[in-house]
Write a structure and sequence with these properties.
This protein is an alpha/beta fold and 472 residues long. It is built from 15 helices and 18 strands. It folds into two domains: 9-175, Rossmann fold; 179-470, 3-Layer(aba) Sandwich (L-fucose Isomerase, Chain A, domain 2).
Amino acid sequence: MSRIPQQLTMAVIIGNRGFFPSYLVAEAREQAVALFARLGIKTIMVSETQTQLGGVETREEAKACAELFRTHRDSIHGVVVLLPNFGDEKAVAETLRLSGLNVPVLVQAQEDNLDKMGLATRRDSFCGKISLCNNLRQYGIPFTLTTQHVCALDGDIFAGDLQRFEQICRVVSSMRGVRVGAIGARPAGFNTVRYSEKLLERLGIAVETLDLSEVFTRIKLLRDNDIRVDEKRRLLIDNADASGIPADKLVTMAKLFVVISEWVIANDIDTTAIQCWTSLQENLGINVCSIMSVMSGQLMPSACEVDVMGALSMYALASSNMSPASIADWNNNFGDDRNKCVLFHCGNFAAESLDNPHMGTADIIGTTVGKENTCGAVHGRLRSGDLTYFRLSTDDLTGEIKAYVGAGKSVDDPLDTVGCRAVIEVPHLENLLNWICRNGFEHHVAMNHSASADVLHEAFTRYLGVNTYLHQ
């Protein structure tokens, strides 16, 4: 089961400043409770009895709020700061510092109405937000801004900002402490997927390894009629039309699936990268593609060719929008259209993203290992629609983790080929490909049906410390 959090919990701070109308704090609290409930987000905030009207203005109120947050630290995914009036910037910053939270922070300021600019009704949140952000920067606390400098707390603009912030928090929470399973050695000819475990460890990412010899030994211990084998076989059949696959091949795939799944559970693995050729074909007579497709559909993405950084890229994408991610090659030009290209892989895409997925053989690798030994590849065309692409990489030359992200579209232009494939359209694609080559990125890219490029850019650049290029 995927450990990507579905329902998030936000700590909420309502700023206050005494010589501005305090009733605005109570009003903001009421609106916030309604908004968060409507969006299905849990909240933790001080009550009206713990501080004046549930706001934060003084040092004592900051301490009380911080203590509450510390009590719930393990369940908090982000902090939302609301400024219904100017607010006390120092009290808000002190609350965040004293709480010890290391999560994304969203700053919202309420807009003034031109017919309510008198002393009894004016807010001055417009100015207070600038002061607060100045203090947060002094304190070294990263933060996210709303689309508009000020906006109505109960309006559509802020609701959209809050949903975007929820995505950012989910990415940050998912990537901190993520555990990757590397199954098998990388193919000898694929230096491109080399990576640095030590750099990943600096980001709190652990890599667990499993040798394929251990996998083969465990498979031999499974009987064909084992209930676990039958459960996995049914998952494979439900994932894509397998009517053309011999029964014995499906059983072998199911056994491999059992071994991988049990190892994943035993080691708390979130995402996997598997040696998909040629040992599996030579020893088991199957491809692992369909298993990877199912796992990706379960939001536990699986990347080909022991591409650990590709697996992490898929996991980040999946966490941003709770939608299955797949991995592919930047594979072919699309005629003379320089803003379109072909993405391709033998057959590992999440079936949910494909039109009419069916299970078959991997024809390209079949030319060397025998087509009959490649049963298990998924074939299908990526559905049309919005697309986000993303790639993480470790760079030993600079000692950093880096990334790129961007938006595009999967389009319906005719394409006569096999495997998992897509025609995608990306603005200024030639510039992107030039940038990828110049900066030494791999030929693999993760993608899914979403519009999450700005979310991933914000999460990785601002909160995870990864230098991320946003292509536009």
